[in-house]
Amino acid sequence: MNKRVFCCGNIAFDLISRNRNIPKRPDFYARPGGSACNAGLLLKRLGIPVSIISKTGVDFLSDNLLETLRREGLDTEHVVREKLINTSLAFARIDEKGDSSYVFYTPRGPASALKHTDLPAPLFAKMPVFHAGSIFTYDDHNAAVILSYIKKASAKGAFVSYDPNWRDHRISDKRTARKRIHNILPHVDLLKLSAYDAVGITGCRSLSSAVKKILDSLKGEMVVTLSDGGAFYWDGTHIVFHPAFKVKVSDTIGAGDGFTAGLLFRYLTVGKERFFAEKKENLAFASAVSALVCTGKGAIEGLIGLDKVRRFLSSNRRTFCKYTHPSL
Fold first, then answer.
1. What is the residue-wise DSSP string for 62-119?
2. What pLDDT shows up at residue 20?
């Protein structure tokens, strides 16, 4: 099996505060960021080849960002550069628990959008896995193009992974955004989302109502993460659950992207049949990757490579449980 993953989404620099009191002591360090980009970086550290599909500016920041991605071993051939836009930035503040809050400076408008012609048609037949994520997939200028990419990749046999990464405060027209995400779901083989995402993309008031509504549209399977509460698969009847590993948290930047990377690594290394059969093993591995991400600064510092994940799992053996959750 060709094991390359094509990650489509925004690429950015995360500017992460070194201290809790930004107004008095503004001090930031830079790390590559963006949901799909983080997933790609972590997959590469697990040994999986990755190509990035995105759009960025033509400035010294984007030069540095692309050089950083190439140095990590990512293929950037399909990153389009546009002189009319600036490089995306995300300022992150870390609280006492290690959780992050963001202020985004992201290009908007027609110049920021990918085009249908940016990816050559023959490429879609060479995509074992197509992963897309974040507001990049449902904003006003990229939504139609990203949906067309997903449809083409799926039609050519790609395994399609999706993480909506809903951020309520960034979305002005929530009804339209939800409709765009709803249009993506029938083409998705693996949907990974947080409980917050599930409620956000459906407009439901409870997680149980949200996941039921999602399953009505979703082609494939769904994994829901619960922050430090663990994660679960649910098919409408049964749940396979795994608790979160306990680690000393530096920050939670990229934790969800690490979970995605762990799931896709499992898919590419055990094959589709075993992947869908071995849900508890998938959750354990993805949870381990996510936990390790939280031990470092930014999305990738905590994950050195596959051996670290294996050692972590070996020293943190868990008992798996399969049950019907009373709230679902």
1. HHHHHHHHHHTT-EEEEEEE-TTSPPEEEEEEE-TTS-EEEEEE---SGGG---GGGS
2. 59
CA distance 4 to 49: 5
Q: What angle do CA 302, 275, 212 make, to 5 degrees?
A: 90
195-202 vs 174-184: helix crossing angle, rounded to 10: 110
Residue 187 near residue 151, CB atoms below 8 Å = yes
Residue 73, Cβ density class (10 Å: 0-12 exposed, 13-18 middle, ≥19 buried):
middle
Closest to 92 (Cα-Cα) out of 29, 6, 151 = 29
Answer whether residue 325 shows pLDDT above 80: no
Structure tokens of 25? 């002591």
Average pLDDT over residues 294-323: 81
Amino acid in position 185: L
Nearest to 236 by CA among 222, 253, 225: 222
Q: How far apart are CA 205 and CA 227, in angstroms?
A: 18
Tokens for 53, please give them: 């599909």
pTM for the whole thing? 0.93
Q: In the block, which residue shows the tokens 């759009």?
A: 55
Q: What are the tens digits of pLDDT across the range 15-25?
A: 888 665 555 66
- Rounded CA-CA distance 134/200 in Å is 13
pLDDT 10s digits, 102-140: 888 988 889 999 999 999 999 999 999 999 999 999 999
- The structure tokens listed for 194 are 């947080």
Question: 114 phi and psi, to 5 degrees?
Answer: -75, 160
Tokens for 76, please give them.
């950037």
Q: What's the CA gap between 251 and 286, in Å, rounded?
A: 17
Q: β-pairing, 50-56 with 5-8?
A: parallel
CA end-to-end span of the chain? 37
Show the tokens assigned to 3: 């094991």
> CA-CA distance, 228 to 108, in Å (whole number)?
33
Going along the chain from its start, the domains and CATH numbers come out as: 5-323 (3.40.1190.20)
Once rounded to an integer, what is the mean pLDDT over residues 34-56?
Answer: 95
